Protein 1
Amino acid sequence: MDSILIQGGRPLNGSVETSGAKNAALPLLAAAILTDKPVVYQRVPHLRDITTMITLLANQGADVSIDDLGRVRVDTASSNNPEAPYELVKTMRASALVLGPLLARFGRARVSLPGGCAIGARPMDLHLKGLEAMGAEITVEHGYVDAVVKNRLHGAHIAFDKVTVTGTENLMMAATLADGETVLENAACEPEVVNLAESLRSMGADIDGDGGSSIRIRGVESLAGGELSVIADRIEAATYLAAGLISGGEVTATNIEADLLDTFLARLRDAGAVVETGEDWVRCSAPNGLKAVNIETSPHPGFPTDLQAQFMAMMCIAEGSSVIRETIFENRFMHVQELRRMGAQIVLNGNMAVVEGIKQLSGAPVMATDLRASASLVLAGLAASGETIISRVYHIDRGYERIEEKLGQLGASIQRTTPNTDMFRRADLVTN
Ligand code: UD1
C-alpha cells in the first residue's frame, strides 16, 4: 500500500492549476445514461472515483473512450445491464448516482446499497423516497435496491427532510425524463448541482431554479447528447491555498472563479490571510501568521464539510483557540487522532472540536482514514518539522489529481513510496 513521505517546514510558493471537480464530474458522467446519444466531457479529472464511475458505465454496456484532446466520450446506446454491483459501489458511495438515470431510461435498476462509510452512516433513504414519489416500486433485499417503474416515472412534489447533494442530483436527473413536472424543495444549491442542471439543459432538459432551494423540472420525451464541461474543483483549489498558508508561503490557484470559494475565503480573511482574486485565479498569503477563527459546516453556501479537516490543520498552528463544528456528518473527525500524533492540541466533544493553536507541529507516521482527512494530514506534514509518512494514501487518490506533482511544483518535498522501496526512495527524495 502506497505512502506519502513529506519533509516539512518549507514554505510553498507559486501557481497551481485547478483540476475539474470530482463531485461535478461524477453526476455528469451518470447523466450519460439519460440519452442514447454520445456525450463528450471536458476537464474530467484523472482520479480513482472517476475510474470507478467509468467502470460502472462500461459494466452496464456503455462504450467509453478518451479522444486525442483528452476528452472522455461516453455512448450508452448499447447499454443493456441497468445494474451497479456491490464490488464497485462499496468503493464509492456516489455510484448511487446511476439509480435515477437508469430508472428513467430503462424503467428498472438494481443498485447495491453503499454500506458503511468512514465519515458516518450516509443512508440513501431520501433518494429512494423521492423515486417512490415519482412512481418507482422499490424493494431493498440482499443488500441491493431493486427499482422498477411501470411505463414511465411521473412528476412529483418532493420536499427533502435534509439537504442532500447527490440526492438532489439523482432526482433531478430522474425527473428530466419523467411525465410531468417535478419540484424539489429544500434542494442542494452546491455549484456542482448547478453544473449538472446547466449540462442537462444543454442536452434538452427543462430545468429552472437550480442554485436555489427549489428546483423545477418539466419532463421531456428524450435528451440529446452533447459536449459538457466540468467546473473547477473548489475543494482541491482550497486545499492548495491552505497548503500555501500553513507552510508560510503564497500560493495562487489558477483556472478557478473566486466565487466558488466565497465562504472559505471569508474565513481565511477572518484568520488574517491576505486574499487576492482575479477573473480566474485566487492568491492567498498570511505574512503575519494565522489567527484562530471558528467555523461550522453547513450546506452551500455555508462552510463546506469537505474543507473542515483542512481548515482544522491550519487552525492547529494558528494563534489562539478555535471551535470547529461539524453538522453534516456525525463521524467526520477521524483526522483528529492523527493530527494529535503530530502534536496538535485538539479536544473533541461530540460534533465539536476545540483546537488550541501551537507554534509548530512535529512530523510523525500517520494514517489516512478518508479522502479529506488525508488532505489535512498532508497539510499538517507540510507545516511540521521533520518527516511525516502518511500511509493508506489510496484515499487521497480518490479526490486529488497528481497531488505529489502539484505540491512538488510549489516547492514541497514530497514523495510517494511503496512498502518495499521506502528505504530506497527515501535516499533520493526529490526536493524541487
Ligand atoms: C456529497 C459530496 C460529498 C460532500 C457531501 C456534503 C459528492 C459525490 N459527494 O455527498 O463530497 O461531503 O455531499 O456536502 O457530491 N442523508 C440522509 N439520507 C439520504 C442522503 C443523505 O440522511 O438519503 C444525510 C447524510 O447522512 C448526511 C447529509 O444527509 O448527513 C448530507 O449528505 P449528502 O449531501 O447526501 O452527501 P452526499 O451527496 O453523499
Protein 2
Amino acid sequence: MIHDKLTSTIRLTNFINLEELSILVAIKLQHVSKSYQGPVIEDLNLTIPTQQITALVGPSGSGKSTLLNLIAGLTTPDSGQIWFDEQPIFDADQSLNCPPAKRQLAMVFQDFALWPHMTVHQNIAFAIETHLSKAECRKRVEWALAQVSLADYGQRYPRELSGGQQQRVALARALATQPDLILFDEALSALDPQLRLQLQQDISALVKAHHLTAIFVTHDRQEALRIADNIVLLHAGQVV
Ligand code: ADP
Ligand code: MG
C-alpha cells in the first residue's frame, strides 16, 4: 500500500513538465487536524474545485494561513489525508508527505516577499532558473511580466515600484513557475481599495486564462464575494 502510494506520487511528479500548461487539480482534505498549543485545524473535511477561485474567509486567528500552509506542505498535519486529484500528497497513517517543491503550487503573500537587492527580473528568475536554460529562463520571465502588464519593469528594483506593482511582480513570480495551484494569503490586504479592485480583476482573469486553481484567503467578505467562485467560511479551525 505504502509502495503504491509512493509510486503514484512519484508518477505525479514525473508527469509534471514545466513546459506544459496546468494539469487539473482538485484538492481534497480528509480529517485533517493541526494543533500548536491548542487545536488550530480540527478534523477538517474540504474539497476545493479545480480551475476556480475558492475564497477562504474567516476572522483573524481562525486558521486560514495554517490551512494554506498545510496544503502547501510548509506545515505538516498531525493527522488526516490531503489529495491533489486522485493523488495522495499527504497521509499521516502512511507517513506519506510530498515535499512542497513537488506540489506544483505557488504562493502570494501580503508583504510581497521580494528580495530587495534583486531586480524584478532576478526576483522572478530566482524561482525557476535551476530548472531552465538561461535563454528559456529569460523568455519565461518576460512572458510572466507581460502577463501582469509589467513588461518594461524587469530592470527595476522593488523599491522603485508602487505596492500594487510589487504585488504584480509577486504574481508574475508565481505564474513563472507555471503552477497548477496558486495560494493567495491576504495578498491584497496591504493595498488601497482602488488597487485592490484592479488586482482582483487581474487575478480573476489570469486564473481563468491559465486554467489555474486558486485559493484566496481574505478576512474581507466583500472581496471574497467579488473574486471567488466559491466561498469557504472558516471558524475556529472548522468549515462552517
Ligand atoms: P489566520 O490566518 O486565520 O489569522 P493562523 O492560521 O495564522 O490564522 O493562526 C491560527 C492560530 O494558530 C493562531 O492562534 C496562531 O497563533 C496559531 N499558530 C499559527 N501558526 C503557529 C505556529 N507556527 N506556532 C504556534 N502557533 C501558531
Ligand atoms: Mg493569516
Protein 3
Amino acid sequence: MSAASRNTDQPLVLGLETSCDETGVGIVRGETLLFDAIASSVDEHARFGGVVPEVASRAHLEAMVPTIERATREAGVRLSDLDAIAVTSGPGLAGALMVGVGAAKALSVALGIPLYGVNHLASHVAVDIVEHGPLPEPTLAMLVSGGHSSLLLVPDVTHDIRSLGSTIDDAAGEAFDKVARVLGLPFPGGPHIDRMAREGNRVAIDFPRGLTTGRDMERYRFDFSFSGLKTSVARWVQAREAAGEPVPVADVAASFQEAVTDVLTRKAVLACKEHGVANLQIGGGVAANSRLRAMAQERCDAAGITLRVPRPGLCTDNGAMVASLGAQMVLKGRAPSDLGLPADSSMPVTQIQS
Ligand code: KG4
Ligand code: ZN
C-alpha cells in the first residue's frame, strides 16, 4: 500500500468537475491535495470563439475514464481506497454536467461509498483549503469566472453561503473574452489580455467603472456591470480603425484590465469593511489575473484584510476544488446526496449541495 493510500482519519475523496470545457479529476486526503488531473477541450472550441456545449459533452465522455486513471495513478491510490465521491452537480452546461454526475453515480454504486453532488461556485471557494488551510469563518469570497461574478458572505462553505451581489449583465471573464475578440486575441481571452497588458500603459485610456458612483453605487452596492465597459472598448477601437490609425493593443488591454480590477477590488474591500469581515478570498478563472492579484493585495494590505488567492492553476476549473469541498462535507458530517441527484444547470450559488 502506498503512502498516499495508507489509512488515516482523513477522508480520501475523488472530485469530478465537468461543468464547462475542463474534465477535472482531483484527489484530496482531508485538506491535502494528492493530485489534480485535467483534460481540456478548449482547443476544440477556440475557432468558435466560445464553448460549444455538444463538443464539450463529447470531450468529457472521452476524457473521463483516462483522466480518472491518471489521477489515481499519480496520486498513488486505488479506487477501492476512496471514502467518498464528489461531483459538480451545477451550475454549468446541462449536457456536460450530466457526464460528470453519471460517472460519479456509477463510481458511488460500484464502490459502495457516499456521493456528494456539490455547487461549482462553492467549490471555487473550498479549493483554497488545500492551498492555504482551513477557511476562516466567516470569509468574504469574490468569485470571478467566465460565467459568474459574485460577492459572497461565507459563514460555512459546506452549508451557509449568502449572496451580497453579482453581475447584472456580463461576467468578468466574459468581458475579458469579448474584449480579447475585439482586439483580435485568441479565445479564451483572459490570459492573452493579462499577457498583453504587461507591455501596456494602464492609465492610457480612462474606461468606465460601472456601478461605482452616485445612485448606481447606492442601489447596486455589491453588484457589477461589465457590459458598458465592453461596449466602450469596442467603440474606442472602432473609432481608431475608422480613422485609419493603428490600435495600441497593449494599452487598450492594460486600461481595460485596470477598469475591471479596480471595480472588483474596490467592491470586495468595501464589502469586507461593511460586513466586518477581515478575510477575503478570490476564486474563479479571472482570479488567475496578475493585475487583479496585485491590486487586491495592495488594497487588502491597506485595509488590514487578509487576502487568500489560490495559485492560478487552482483558480480555473479543476477537479481538486470539487474534491476539497467533498472532503469538507465529510469532515463536517454533512449527509451525502441522494443517488437520484440531478444535474442542475441553473443551481443557485446559495445552494451548496443537491
Ligand atoms: O473558472 P473558469 O475556468 O471557468 C468558468 O467557470 O467560467 O473561468 C474561465 C474564465 C475565462 O473567461 C478566462 O478568460 C478567464 O477565466 N481567465 C482570465 C485569466 N485566466 C483565465 N481572465 C483574466 N486574466 C487571466 N489571467
Ligand atoms: Zn468555474
Protein 4
Amino acid sequence: MYTYNNIVKDGNEVLRTKCEDVQIPLSHEDFEVLSKMNDYLADSYDDELCKKYGLRPGVGLAAPQVGVAKKMLVIMAYDEKGDFHHYVLVNPKIISTSVELTYLETGEGCLSVTKDYRGLIHRHKRVKVKTLVFDFESGDLVEKTLSFKGYIAVVFQHEYDHLIGKLFYDHINKDNPFYVPENSTPVVFSKD
Ligand code: ZN
C-alpha cells in the first residue's frame, strides 16, 4: 500500500515531467500502481486508517505523485451538491473547455506540496475529456467522453496538470494572488 511517505513531494523532478501515454492493454505494473493510488484515496476517507498509517486525505492522485511518469489519475471527491464522484482515468485528454472560469475560495492544496501557497487558481468551469475509464469491478478499460463541471472540473484540472508537469501554485497571479477575472465565479458548496 501507499502511505503519505510514498507521495512524491515538490522538488522531485518527476512532478515537473510531461507524462507518457500508458500502453494498452494495461501492464501488470501499471494496474498495481493504479490500484494502490485508488486504495490510498479510499483509505484516506477513513479516519482510523488515516491515524494508523499517517495518511493525509486527498480527493485526487496522479501517477507522477507516486513516482510514475505515466498518464493515470484517480479522483474520489464529493461535489458541491454532496454527490460522490469516483473516476479512474487512463490517458485523459481535454477536448474542450468553457470560457467561464471557476475557483475555490480557499485556494487549492496538493498532497505533493507541503509549503503553504496562498492565492486563487482560476480554472475552466466546464471541461470535456476523452479518456479511458478503468473499472476495478469488471477490469474493463473503456473509452469515454466525460464532462466535468464546478468542483469536480477543478479537481480534474488539478490532477491533469500533474500529467503535464504543472503544480497548482504555477497558476497563482504573482502580482495579485487574489485577483478574480470578470469571467470567474467561485464554486459554491451547499450547506447541508
Ligand atoms: Zn496535486
